[in-house]
Structure formats: structure tokens, C-alpha cells
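Long-time lurker, finally posting.

We've been working with FAM81A isoform 11 (Pan troglodytes) and I want a structural starting point before designing mutants. I don't trust myself to interpret raw outputs, so I'm hoping someone here can both generate the C-alpha cells and explain anything notable. Sequence follows.
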Amino acid sequence: MENMHLRRVRTMPRHSQSLTMAPYSSVSLVEQLEDRILCHEKTTAALVEHAFRIKDDI
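Top reply, 14 upvotes:
Generated this for you. Predicted structure of FAM81A isoform 11:
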């Protein structure tokens, strides 16, 4: 199983988020996070579908 590391993220007010630019070096981090989110979404969808199939069988 993949090691999961939790990091504390400092939140900013929504209005100030649009004013900040991500440094170029963090683009790869953003892409990695987007890929992980997509993977989690696909996994969640598959699990929900499987759960409904089990429910229908019961």
C-alpha cells in the first residue's frame, strides 16, 4: 500500500486566492495532485457502482 503523508494546508480567503500566482516549480505538484484526485474519483465511482450491485443482489 502506498504511504500517505498528510500535510496541513493554510487556507486563504477566496478573494485573495485569485490574486496569487503559483510559482512555475509548483506546476508539477498541481498536476500530481490533480492526477491523484482523478484517480480517487475513478476509484470512488467504481466502489459506489460495486456497492449498488451488491445492494441489488441482496
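Before you design anything, note these points.
The chain is about 60% helix and 0% strand.
The chain has a mean pLDDT of 76.
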